Amino acid sequence: MSPEEMSNMKSLISTIASVTATAMLVRSIASDFIPKEYRSYVFDSFHSLFHRFSSQFTILIHEFQGPSPNLVFEAVEVYLGSIVNSSTKSIRLGKTENDKGLVITMDKDEEIIDVFEDVKVTWRMECRRIESGSQNDEIKDMIAALCSELRCYELKFHKKHKEKVMKSYLPYIMERSKNAKEESRVIKLYSNFRNWGSDGMNLKHPMTFDTLAMDEEVKNALIDDLESFVKGKEYYSRIGKAWKRGYLLYGPPGTGKSSLIAAMANHLNYDIYDLDLTEVRSNSNLRSLLLGMSGRSILVIEDIDCSINLENREQKEEKENKHNRVTLSGILNFLDGIWSCCGEERVIVVTTNHIDKLDAALLRPGRMDMHINMSYCKSSAFKQLVFNYLNIHDHELFDQIGELLQVVEVTPADVAGELLKSKNPTISLRGLVEFLKIKLQKEETLKSQNGGPEAEEAFKDETKHESIHDSSEDLSNIVDL
Ligand SMILES: Nc1ncnc2c1ncn2[C@@H]1O[C@H](COP(=O)(O)OP(=O)(O)OP(=O)(O)O)[C@@H](O)[C@H]1O
Ligand SMILES: [Mg+2]
Q1: How far is 54 from 297, CA to CA, in rounded Å?
Q2: For bias kind Basic and acidic residues, which ranges apply (predicted)?
């Protein structure tokens, strides 16, 4: 360095030092001597002068972008809440109806240091009270009506990392907070009874794939299918198909079809849109309902064979059209139609007790991608139920019950009903053995009295009704009101 450069450097350093000292001095005395209305002007001027000589770069993220909430602010708030650490002295804590757990946010004037790919950054939260009426500013007044203070996150780091922070760190925060928000979100259940309504009901159904009793292989195949669907955005666009997947659940009442839908919603964290076709006035009403659904959701049409007559399709549709009713082709148009691509990541679940009654057009491959048979309770489903209800993995009565389940057709709902009767495993399982024996005896007596498959069917019908009244539930019963 030449003597001249050395002297320039010295003078620069002394200028920075004096600006810094002056800035600090001004800050400390400004509150007493500078009139309120000029304070922010004076502070800002010194602030910008100071920054001209600083190696630090600062990004300010205000809570509002004009009159609208700033999405970056919201993302930063969620992100910082997830990284508060032991060095944080004070936090803000809250929970709304739409949050699963407690929500942590950074408190005023708190600082958090974060390290991203070896870049050290400092976050600080500033609050300024909104003095409404001080300026004739409409936006300010609007915001003042919503909150009493304006919040702003200040992000500081070395100038040389500007590009990394802008191009990698901030997008990383946006992505991470999106995922965190998804995870903490409460699943909603919408019903077409009131055209979905503005805000659905909170669905807090405890059923998960861990607690659902069904054939292990089918369950795993379904989970895999859901996983690849969720990750399939690029795949679906590459093959030119709408990003949707259809599941048909069929089986007798009480075998867990509604429970499986709840488990799917919990697994995917998707909202449920429960479509009662008997409430749909026309195909155009159906179309507007389907267009009103958000993405990442499950459209459920339960008991499709009961809500729409699927037999003699053409003849029926003629009649139904006269009454301006929803038709099967209206539904099928949605499943296949061009506007089914509006909104992404949609799962459609159709349930029925009578797969044999369904129109072949609905069963065609590509419409319902997976057909899942929810069948009577067999040994593996029984063991899952016993673990759920009694918290045991084994018992001396298991073999006997397993053998009875080979010959008696009972639903998981029937078994669950018996297991609920006592918390004592032996009492509960003995009760179940008795229940199965009585059912078997009834079945055999009926067969020997009347003989033939008709009697068997009559018996099955009788027991189906019992299941419906005893323990089946539909989606309207599984909301947390
Ligand atoms: N596979 C299962 N695993 C765990 N619990 C089950 C299962 N099936 C039924 N149950 C129990 O029985 C109750 C009724 O089951 P669910 O309503 O899911 O049957 P469903 O097949 O939807 O009947 P429906 O055809 O009448 O609508 C559930 O709340 C649950 O407690
Ligand atoms: Mg059901």
Answers
A1: 50
A2: 457-472
